[in-house]
Write a structure and sequence with these properties.
globular, alpha/beta, 6-stranded parallel beta sheet, 236 residues, single chain
Length: 236
């Protein structure tokens, strides 16, 4: 009798274990995915780390924003010879990209004239950001529809794009185009700019961008070359 009782107890124990295992293996169809899946989905929605799809007919446009050409004259500094000047750094990288890709270039110029003094400009840029201003652009690319790959260059102002770039992206349809950001900075890298571009251009393909410290632009050509090779837009 004791043996029968023992067998019955063991049977109940096995049945309980099987039920517990089945409950833990079964996941509802609408269950929240794990953290790694959430992170992957979030990243893929904003940027793409794969190479650019470039056909023989692809046209490249390098759009950039810089204080050069829209700032007060510099009395004490030669803006041409002083490549470390904060307002000229983005142009240096834009020219490197043009040289290596053969793309066309277009500078975004605002009606507003920015101060020659760097600190005064950053103060003005902060006021623009705080008031969510959209500076008026004097001109915009007329044949933007002809390009399928658009490099977008700018200085990192207060952790993101200059507000003039918000003006441009909100007033131009870049749907279906590949957007490739590049920026110059003094320690902030790309900041939130790439995320903000993805928000403004949800129907565009955003490629991981390049950030170059302002004081290093004249020696950054190798970095630009490696970056362009990585994304499939430059071959020696």
């Amino acid at each position: 009798m004791k043996n029968v009782y023992t067998i019955i107890c063991m049977a109940f124990a096995l049945l309980a274990f099987a039920s517990f295992t089945a409950c833990n293996d079964a996941k509802p169809a609408n269950a929240t995915p794990d953290n790694s899946a959430v992170t992957e989905n979030k990243n893929s929605a904003n940027t793409d780390t794969v190479t650019v799809t470039k056909s023989a007919n692809s046209k490249i446009l390098i759009i950039y924003f810089s204080r050069v050409g829209i700032s007060e004259p510099f009395d004490k500094v030669d803006a041409v010879s002083s490549a470390s000047l904060p307002n000229g750094n983005t142009i240096v990288i834009a020219n490197d990209i043009k040289e290596m890709t053969g793309g066309d270039m277009f500078q975004l110029i605002t009606d507003k004239v920015y101060p020659a003094d760097y600190d005064a400009t950053t103060d003005l840029a902060k006021k623009e950001q705080n008031s969510n201003e959209r500076p008026t652009l004097k001109s915009q690319p007329e044949n933007l529809a002809d390009y399928d790959i658009v490099f977008l260059g700018y200085p990192n102002w207060w952790g993101t794009l200059p507000m003039a770039l918000f003006t441009f992206l909100e007033n131009n349809d870049l749907s279906g185009k590949t957007i490739i950001p590049f920026c110059t900075h003094e320690g902030s890298g790309l900041g939130d700019s790439q995320r903000d571009i993805a928000k403004l251009c949800p129907e565009s393909k955003i490629i991981d961008g390049l950030a170059v410290r302002g004081g290093s632009v004249t020696s950054a050509k190798t970095d630009v070359e490696k970056w362009l090779q990585k994304i499939g837009l430059y071959q020696q």
